[in-house]
Amino acid sequence: MNRKLAMVLAAGVGISLALTGCSAGGSGSGSGSSGSGKKGGLISIIVNDPSNPYWQTEGKVASAEAKSLGYKSNVSASKGDTNTESNLIDTAITNKSVAIILDPANASGSIGAVKKADAAGIPVILVNAEINQTGLAKAQLVSNNAQGAAIGAQQWVKDVGDSGNYAELFGAPSDNNAQTRSNGYKTVLSQYPNLKEVAKQVANWDRTQGHDKTQSILQANPDIKGIIAGNDEMALGAIAALKESGKLDQVKVGGFDGSPDAADAIKAGELQYTVLQPVATFAKKAVQEADSYIRTGKTGVSQEKQSFDCILVTKDNVDDFTAPFTLKQ
Predict the structure, then answer these.
(1) SS3 state of residue 242
(2) From the centroid of its chain, how far is CA 24?
(3) 195 neighbors 159 (Cβ within 8 angstroms)
(4) Residue pair 270/103 in contact by the 8 Å Cβ criterion
(5) Cβ neighbours of residue 51 under 8 Å, at least 6 residues apart?
(6) Who wins on pLDDT, 272 or 6?
(7) How far is CA 156 from the centre of its chain?
(8) What is the C-alpha separation between 2 and 8, in angstroms, rounded?
């Protein structure tokens, strides 16, 4: 494994702090026990959908870190629904959680849920996805999606070539990450005028939808050379559809997340690459910042928004996988 990859993953190195003008302590009005100097109690962890290995890892890592620091933890899932998320926040408040780790269901729609927790004096640390308001959450930890999309698109061009028709599978529109990645792809691919996007379908991060939308794309555009997907689940769905149509050798597919299934698909020669999001790194760090806030009233980080660089995974380094969403150091 090359030195650059090791350096990016090592001990949280590769974190870039986005300038937001807000302190990591937030500006919430809640009057809970944060900063009491004590630790222990319940940390509630709310992810999106643990049937997706990415979110499953997010919840498992955060829960394990909470327990290692002396807290109780529970993991629940909103399934991307803001009403469910709101109810889970209510439950966390009722259960007197000392902190909430939240992967928000909706960039705008989750603001109200975070406000409720803040008003109850419970610090909220956001992971993976942002909300469209600063100063409520004590921290927002996300992948550097623009950087990840750029390195993915650059590799995609190497695999597909600089001309021909292609399609894009887009994630959930309610998640800012979907548009950020799509914009990142466009920034790179627009530099190649002979590459033409003939289809763009929303598949909501889902493998089954990725499969079905790819089937429709192939029927309307049988001559496409490549599919660039917003995450691995959609990419793997596309691969399944391409296998069924006998076109996997003709159409190159790129993913995003760094899931174990994506790694296996790369090894099998079915997926060209994935972009690894260091979810295990920032899920762990989110709990550490929550612990710091509980004990001291500060997260220990100067900025609310923190982004973590992604890593390109291809056949050249895929054997360096050691655990879900991590590479050997």
Answers:
(1) helix
(2) 20
(3) no
(4) no
(5) none
(6) 272
(7) 20
(8) 11
> How high is the pLDDT of residue 196?
98
Per DSSP, the residues of 70-115 read T-EEEEEE-TT-HHHHHHHHHHHHHTT-SEEEE--S-TTTTHHHHH
Contact 258, 311 (CB under 8 A): yes
Cα-Cα-Cα-Cα dihedral of 210, 215, 217, 223, to 10°?
A: 120
Average pLDDT over residues 256-276: 97
Tally of residues, the chain: 329
**Both tokens of residue 328?**
């050997």
3-class secondary structure, 231:
coil
Q: With bands split at pLDDT 50, 70 and 90, how would you rate the model's confidence at 324?
A: confident
Model confidence band, residue 12 (pLDDT cutoffs 50, 70, 90): very low
Q: What is the pLDDT of residue 327?
A: 83
pLDDT on residue 36:
57
Sign of the CA dihedral with 161 first, then 164, 170, and 176 last: positive
For residues 50 and 174, give the distance between their C-alpha atoms in angstroms, rounded to a whole number.
18
Q: What is the pLDDT of residue 35?
A: 61
Q: Which residues contact 24 (CB under 8 A, 6 or more apart)?
A: 138, 139, 289, 298, 299, 300, 301, 302, 303, 304
Q: ∠ CA(253), CA(57), CA(124), 5° rounding?
A: 115
Report the C-alpha gap between 270 and 248 in whole angstroms: 7
Q: What is the pLDDT of residue 37?
A: 63
Average pLDDT over residues 57-78: 98
In angstroms, what is the C-alpha Rg of the chain?
20
- Which residue intervals of the chain are DSSP H helices? 3-9, 53-68, 82-94, 111-119, 145-160, 176-189, 207-220, 232-245, 260-267, 279-296
Which residues on neighbouring strands pair with residue 326, listed in sequence order? 323
| Distance in angstroms (rounded) separating the CA atoms of residues 184 and 301 | 27
